[in-house]
Automatic annotation (TrEMBL):
It comes from Heterosigma akashiwo. Keywords: ATP-binding, Helicase, Hydrolase, Nucleotide-binding. Transmembrane segments: none annotated. Residues 28-196 form the Helicase C-terminal domain. The keyword Nucleus does not apply. PROSITE patterns: HELICASE_CTER (PS51194). PANTHER family: ATP-DEPENDENT RNA HELICASE, ATP-DEPENDENT RNA HELICASE DHX34-RELATED. InterPro entries: DEAH_win-hel_dom (IPR042035), Helicase_C-like (IPR001650), P-loop_NTPase (IPR027417). GO terms for molecular function: helicase activity; hydrolase activity; RNA binding. SUPFAM superfamilies: P-loop containing nucleoside triphosphate hydrolases. It holds the Pfam family Helicase_C. It comes from the Eukaryota. Coiled coil: none annotated. This is Helicase C-terminal domain-containing protein.
Length: 235
């Protein structure tokens, strides 16, 4: 299992990422772990812009120390580029893998001994007031933070460095926001109509959507003539 440490300072503010603490982490690992002991570093970031910012800073130290290979893992990269993270590094060299939450559950990378977690992710959210989706950078949930921590030392001892304050962790939601609360409900309500289900406000959803999202979807479908809603929301 993975131990836990905090290296606060990875975020200058809730919107600005500082790459310096991540470079210092490479230096700390070099000073505390013998070069002949294998163990790679997996870093979690919100998106590609944060990954590139830290990669630029790490690359300079990697060239000077000759102890690190900096690799990127992101859904926009080619399969060939993504596959590089799975190749073992030469003896005496460690991999620093900079990833989005694609490495949280989707892939397992052997040899990861250290994890650095920024605590952030990009999430597609639905705004019923404007009727638009937007990609927002948000804090992850405590469950996601623990999932990321579990990526360290899956086959031996490991350490997770959380690059944020304890109070940030305490303020996180316990679990991720359910998809039903982040997506428009129009298609779901139309499918319910096709199935002959009547008042969606009374339907026993496993995870009930926010009432304002449900009301907004009902209003939009009614305005477009797709539904006829009576006083109690029944067709």
């Amino acid at each position: 299992g993975a131990g836990e440490r905090r290296l606060a300072g990875g975020l200058r503010s809730r919107r600005t990422l500082d790459p310096a603490p991540y470079v210092r982490l490479l230096q700390q690992i070099d000073h505390s772990v013998p070069a002949d002991q294998r163990g790679d570093l997996l870093c979690f970031f919100a998106g590609m812009s944060e990954i590139l910012k830290v990669a630029d800073a790490m690359a300079e130290y990697a060239r000077e120390s000759r102890r690190w290979i900096v690799l990127l893992l992101h859904s926009t990269l080619s399969a060939e580029e993504q596959d590089k993270v799975f190749d073992p590094a030469p003896l005496g060299i460690r991999k620093a893998i900079l990833s989005t939450n694609i490495a949280e559950t989707s892939v397992t990378i052997d040899g990861v001994r250290f994890v650095a977690d920024s605590g952030r992710e990009k999430q597609l959210r639905w705004d019923p007031a404007s009727g638009t989706r937007n990609l927002a950078e948000v804090w992850i949930s405590q469950a996601s933070a623990n999932q990321r921590k579990g990526r360290a030392g899956r086959t031996g001892p490991g350490t997770c460095y959380r690059m944020y304050q304890r109070e940030d962790f305490d303020a996180m939601d316990r679990f991720p926001v359910p998809e039903v609360a982040r997506t428009p409900l129009d298609a779901t309500l139309l499918q319910m109509k096709v199935l002959g289900l009547r008042d969606p406000r009374r339907f026993p959803f496993l995870t009930p959507p926010p009432p304002e999202h449900l009301d907004a979807a009902l209003l939009q479908l009614t305005l477009h003539g797709a539904l006829e809603v009576g006083k109690e929301g029944e067709e």
